[in-house]
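ok here's Unconventional myosin-Ia, seq below lol
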Amino acid sequence: MTLMEDSVGVGDLVLLEPLEEEPLLKNLQLRYENKEIYTYIGNVLISMNPYQQLPIYGPEFIAKYRDYTFYELKPHIYALANVAYQSLRDRDRDQCILITGESGAGKTEASKLVMSYVAAVCGKGEQVNSVKEQLLQSNPVLEAFGNAKTIRNNNSSRFGKYMDIEFDFKGSPLGGVITNYLLEKSRVVKQLEGERNFHIFYQLLAGADAHLLEALKLKRDTSHYAYLNQKVSRVDGMDDASNFKSVQNAMTVIGFSEVEIQQVLEVTALVLKLGNVELADESQANGTSASGICDGRGVQEIGEMIGLNSEELEKALCSRTMKTAKEEVVTTLNFTQAQYARDALAKNIYSRLFNWIVNRINESIKVGSGEKKKVMGVLDIYGFEILEDNSFEQFVINYCNEKLQQVFIEMTLKEEQEEYKREGIPWTKVDYFDNGIICNLIEHNQQGILAMLDEECLRPGVVSDSTFLVKLNQVFSKHGYYESKVTQNAQRQYDRTMGLSCFRICHYAGKVTYNVNSFIDKNNDLLFRDLSQAMWKAQHPLLQSLFPEGVPTQTSLKRPPTAGAQFKSSVAILMKNLYSKNPNYIRCIKPNEHQQRGQFSSELVAVQTRYLGLLENVRVRRAGYAYRQRYGPFLERYRLLGRSTWPRWNGGDREGVEKVLGELSLSSEELAFGKTKIFIRSPKTLFYLEEKRRLRLQQLATLIQKIYRGWRCRTHYQLMRKSQILISSWFRGNMQRKRYAKIKASVVLIQAFVRGWKARKDYRKYFRSGAALTLADFIYKSITQKFLLGLRNNLPSTNVLDRTWPAAPYRCFNTANQELQQLFYRWKCKRFRDRLSPKQVEILKEKLCASELFKGKKASYPQSVPIPFCGDYLGLQGNPKLQKLKGGEEGPVLMADTVKKVNRGNGKTSSRILLLTKGHVILIDTKKSQAKTVIGLDSVAEVSVTSFKDGLFSLHLNEISSVGSRGDFLLVSEHVIELLTKMYQAVLDATQRQLLISVTEKFSVRFKESSVAVKVIQGPEGDRNGKLKCKKKGSRCLEVTV
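and the structure came out like this:
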């Protein structure tokens, strides 16, 4: 029932009062100006083209309309699409959606919206999405090849389209079939002023890259092509280059191969190039007229592109072969005939290409024959046309619309009759205009206009449009829906608008005058056999397939069916298809001729409402009862009008409706109670109910306001009373608390005085003599506590090198402060040692030993402190020869270093390798890698070393040892501190004695049986380098400068 709430005008024209053309137009105008572009006639949707994007589409609105029934929300195309889809999915009823209206009314957009809605609400899945994408992508391809800019519409469909979308039992799309009707192929060769040819020509020239244009032998400028209107090459708001890319992508999605796309573009280019073939008027030797090609270059380019000899194409364009059963005659074509042949070829190529594209799309989206399927058809076809000059095209278009109107009336009445029967309400015969007599006038097999047109085309002898008109006048002279100049004269009527070559038919939408000129040619739609055969001979697979009749071995002398007969047959198949489905109608209306938003032309809309038969639709819909609704929603909306049903009703829905309407005393003739619905005959009764409901809502609103105001006043009073009581209680409590506080303060003061008096009395009696000691003890404990707490809060860091400590605040705490400092330092050291690994402990022990031996004695000691002891300075692990020399029982090498041995005789130095093990000192010749001397640690008696930064030291050996008999050793090492420290520890471990290390600048060295005094002095450059200079002074003295 939301249809009547917040509605602008009347949302359903079935409820329009009075039912006349002027109120109908005013209602449509009112809704259009308020951007309400959709209106219902029962289940028929009227759509006004807004010429702007309105915010009433998209996923949000799709979700909204899929959850509600048809009349629960405002009129919308989604509501109609939802009804059709749900009926197909849930009730297994095949559907068809008929979209009609004149060019520019928005039929194409309406069909897109229907398809997009169905695609959005149906099932999901990879295969389903692929099918949906193919169905949706068929639109841009068909629009490119079948749409064009006209005076009325920038994207006008120049063909009729019927698409069957096939679904499985779950409602998911499986595929579809597209049928096209009556492509306006005359547009290929000629367009009216202000119009364009089909979009694809402009898209190809604007969007193709340079390589593709070169392959197709085309130029980008449209002015080079005679078939393209030079004045209108661009359309505002349309990007031809971008659209061309979209068309290529769409063809790929549908399933066209790269080769097929290229061939389609080649045939399209062929049509353009045919228009540039210039013909000349020539004469033969016998004086008869003939024709020829002005410039053979155009024909040659066409031949190269399609693989055809240019001479054969020129011959087919300028001559015609007539075949009979006995002979074959070749006649030349004059200039006019040759132009007709060229244009007929271009039109046929394009028309057949369009049909091939439709069939190719059908191949991609077709469904297997074995699958059970449901079908939804969408018909997008021309609306009724009445132009200033109406020809054969308008005749067949209006014939199709007559058939659609016949379907609409019969299906609507049938639906009404079925609903009445279903609800158990008597059906009364409805008087309406049956346009079957007009359809019969056009399509009768013997006496119909189309049949006589075919007969005239096939008749031997002189045949012309005039003879065809004469025949019509003879046959239909007394027909009530046919007029011509002859029939008017016979009835003594005078009509200036009726031409001599015209006839008029009284269609359901009005009288239309047709000019018979070119009826015969357009119905014949002939293409000379020479042209068909020439196209078949082309080495182009697609072009060959378009002209199967060109095969020489299959040449038939039988005349092909006429355009009228083909269209009549297509319409008959379409009508049969529509009768087998449940119809849904969308009537599209164009509000103005200028495609301007917000403009409403009453005259133009009035003409279209007559074309579409909207008033007739409303009358048929209102033939019985204008309004019907299920009992439940009706009772929910109107139960507030009955005393017994408001505010609560516990009975059945039908009994409740009967109670409400019975209390309103409505006429029984206005009402009918079906099995599930209530029927109301006239809109006045429904409007009466709505007015009563509106007044009742006002009464209820007033009642609610009254009750609410009373409740609000009572609540306010109760709140104020509660607040007053609360404030009073708080005030009294506060006064009592203040009084109690004063009493308490007085009592505390008295108690304090009494306690003070008693304390003073007791003090004088017991504590006066020992007061000084007690106070002193208390003060000392206080400052001690303060000192310790302050020390706790100001402890230094736990770094063992940090020896800082806060000073004692009083001298009496100095001793305790020093003890605490020592305890803290020892704790830090203990904590540091506990964190060391065994290896780090050994390193530190060696460093400690070095400190005890050399600290303050040797000048190079401070430099060695931060450097860790390495031990192996030779890479012993990688030298197996040296490892062999140390012996297998010696254990690990404690020190491996290169040293210099000083010759005691002449003071010269030579390089040696020193290996220190747990039991020996081994000196090795660096050149021969052989052990020169092995000294047992028990043989080492003493070591002498200088106090300078040099590395000179002397090993003093026991005389009784085998090695010691040869004398002491004077050596130089860069790592003397580490070497002597490790040697000291090794001797201690091996012999349990401490090795004596003397730090002195004068010492003696034994040399066999004699001794040499060594004196070490520091030279002027001693601080800068570590080179030693040995100088022999006499036979018993060696001076070493470091």
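fwiw DSSP finds 32 helices and 31 strands in the chain. kinda neat tbh
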